Amino acid sequence: MELVGDKEQEAILDSLQEWFEENPKFPNKIDRVLLTRFFFCMHKDEEKTKKLLETNYTIRLANPYIFTKRDPTDQDSKNTIAIADIVPLPGLTKENYRIVVHRLTNPDANLMHHAEDTKTYIMLNDCRFSLPDAIVDGAPVLSAGDVHISDMSCHSMAHMRRMSLRILRTMLKFVQEAYPVRIKAIHMVNCPSYMNNMLAFVRPFVSKKVFELMHFHTSGIESLYEFIPQDMLPEEYGGTAGKLADFKAQFLEKVMEKRDYLMDPQYWELEKA
């Protein structure tokens, strides 16, 4: 879907932006690309877009410890980025979906700090949601949804024990009820033998609808290719698109370019008189 639409669409977005920025329940500003994502996520229904925005910012403003006062150059962010990959891959699938890889790169659970890691994860997503997903025929476009690859190879029950139930509950509620992008599938790869125990830990907070989006690849990576073409996957997953480390570096460059935006309280905190 092209980011910039016809006059009618842009007029609706102008109206939504004015409604948002004059609303005392919201921050002073909202990024136009992000606003467009909300609009597309709700199939261009103006009233449903408003409800999704209200849900999103209600959760954000009620939990500032993971949603505000973040900096991609601070030590907490660097620590998370050093032990985890949260990487959008280039291009879109034939269904117009964006593929995003999530994985830990270090199995040491002592390096995990749930609040700080969650704050960084949200910050990286906020950056991505302010950018187009691809350029097609010279025009910026947004995807029709996300396909997530969650690599479980470095996860353990020790990581689960370090989780805060409050943060886990808040984050899963946010992703399931307030995300400005529709999640189309979640592919769990390199699943450990104790995967069922890990699922039992989070299952109370995961809706039936989201659980049905999960695909568990327990007999090797090859079954993933039935859903995602190899030419879109990085070499680490048997693909030919390139190295995940290179895609991560490219994305982090964009995060640094967006640093001022990510840290600007006018976009993320209530400052209205």
Description:
- This protein is of the alpha/beta class and 273 residues long.
- It folds into two domains: 7-62; 75-258, 3-Layer(aba) Sandwich (Phosphatidylinositol Transfer Protein Sec14p), CATH 3.40.525.10.
- The protein has helices spanning 7-21, 32-41, 46-62, 64-67, 75-83, 114-128, 157-161, 165-177, 195-202, 208-211, 244-257, 259-263, 265-268; strands spanning 84-88, 97-104, 134-136, 139-141, 145-151, 183-189, 214-217.
- It has a five-stranded mixed sheet with strand order 1-2-5-6-7. A two-stranded antiparallel sheet has the order 3-4.
- Strand 1 and strand 2 form a beta hairpin.
- The N and C termini lie far apart (37 Å).
- The model has no long low-confidence stretch (mean pLDDT 94).
- This is CRAL-TRIO domain-containing protein.
- Pfam families: CRAL_TRIO.
- InterPro entries: CRAL-TRIO_dom, CRAL-TRIO_dom_sf, CRAL/TRIO_N_dom_sf.
- One of its GO terms (cellular component) is membrane.
- It comes from Musca domestica.
Features:
2 domains, Phosphatidylinositol Transfer Protein Sec14p, alpha/beta, 273 residues
Sum this structure up briefly.
The chain contains 13 helices and seven strands. One of its GO terms (cellular component) is membrane.
